[in-house]
Design a protein that fits this description.
Blueprint: H1 27-40, H2 43-46, E1 58-63, H3 69-80, E2 84-89, H4 101-110, E3 115-120, H5 125-130, E4 136-142, H6 148-162, E5 169-173, H7 180-191, E6 195-199, E7 215-217, H8 220-224, E8 229-232, H9 248-255, H10 259-262, E9 270-272, H11 285-288, H12 296-315
Parallel strand pairs: 1-2, 1-3, 3-4, 5-6, 5-8, 6-7, 8-9
Helix pairs in contact: 1-6, 1-12, 3-12, 6-7, 6-12
Length: about 325
């Protein structure tokens, strides 16, 4: 059966070989990815066998950190595009026995994959790997550096719900310091024309955040005022050495999102969270589970479509022979 090549906005490839950072993407690349992601939101298009643009190609998911949403999302995206998908369990791999990332890269290269998705606890690991393998590399999260595919799916979620991102006032709240999601979202949302605010305690706001093209607030009332979207972040205790917050209970009192604090935002404000959620720490269940307010489930659904678009267009670019 012949492949169907969907060409959004007249473009069938990206001007980048890898997706390591939002900075790798020009505005036309972003628009093409979002256009194709919106097309793939249609389940009938996702599951159409004629869209097997990755038939005969191999996708390897290389996750050095545990993940449910991102890894399974990439797995499903790859399979729906017809790829042979290999999920490598790094907990039982040679890496757990002391093999270096460069040795792992040499091993992977010998397998001749076409696309490689990597999540790693060290910032810069995907970029290093991309220099040592002959295939396209996608950053699925590296340390506290970036998570570009999450930012793209968040933008697609907002676009399909609100019609666009330009002009929205968006607050990103919580543990900004340790958040790769925040860093990627700030870059992408700025490119797309949103007004971005960061809200969190001084201990969890990076020292250079005022240079990110955002407004920084340390209290929810002033920070959320007039915001159309509230994006909550997980308190990443596993990345903290020392005391960044007095206690989870006190953190929720000041920075956890509940109905009272949400009323500071604009009427009809929507709520997002990249997951996994710590209920009662950064968000109240009444907010997280309210379908009229919360886009959290929609973010997960959008993730597969967005990652299909990423795999599709990278497969037509310099990293994979089309």
């Amino acid at each position: 059966m012949s492949n169907t090549h969907i060409s959004p906005s007249g473009r069938s490839r990206l001007d980048t070989r890898h997706l390591l950072s939002i900075a790798d993407l020009h505005r036309p690349d972003i628009d093409s990815l979002l256009d194709l992601g919106e097309t793939y939101l249609d389940l009938s298009v996702q599951k159409d066998a004629r869209n097997n643009v990755l038939a005969g190609k191999t996708l390897i998911n290389l996750f050095f950190e545990n993940s449910t949403r991102t890894e399974k999302s990439f797995e499903l995206a790859g399979r729906r595009l017809g790829a042979d998908v290999i999920n490598m369990s790094m907990a039982t791999s040679s890496a757990s026995k002391g093999e270096t990332l460069l040795d792992t890269a040499t091993t992977l290269n010998a397998m001749n994959p076409d696309l490689l998705v990597i999540r790693h606890s060290a910032s810069g690991a995907p970029a290093l790997l991309s220099q040592k393998v002959s295939c396209a590399v996608i950053n699925a999260g590296d340390g506290a550096h970036e998570h570009p595919t999450q930012a793209l799916l968040d933008a697609l979620t907002l676009r399909t719900r609100l019609g666009g991102v330009d002009g929205l006032r968006i607050a990103i709240c919580g543990d900004i310091l340790h958040s790769r999601v925040a860093r990627s979202n700030v870059q992408l949302l700025n490119i797309l024309g949103a007004e971005v605010r960061l809200i969190g305690p001084p201990t969890l706001i990076p020292l250079d955040a005022d240079q990110w093209g955002v407004e920084v607030y340390h209290d929810m009332e002033s920070g959320l005022k007039g915001c159309d979207v509230v994006m909550m972040l997980r308190l990443q205790l596993e990345r903290m050495s020392g005391s960044f917050v007095p206690s989870k209970r006190e953190y929720f009192h000041f920075y956890g999102l509940d109905q009272r604090k949400l009323e500071y935002a604009a009427p009809g404000a929507l709520v997002m969270h990249p997951g996994p959620m710590n209920r009662g720490v950064e968000i109240n269940s009444d907010i997280a589970d309210d379908p009229d307010i919360s886009l959290i489930t929609r973010q997960v659904e959008t993730g597969v479509a967005m990652r299909m678009a990423i795999l599709h267009l990278l497969s037509q670019s310099g990293g994979v022979d089309a």
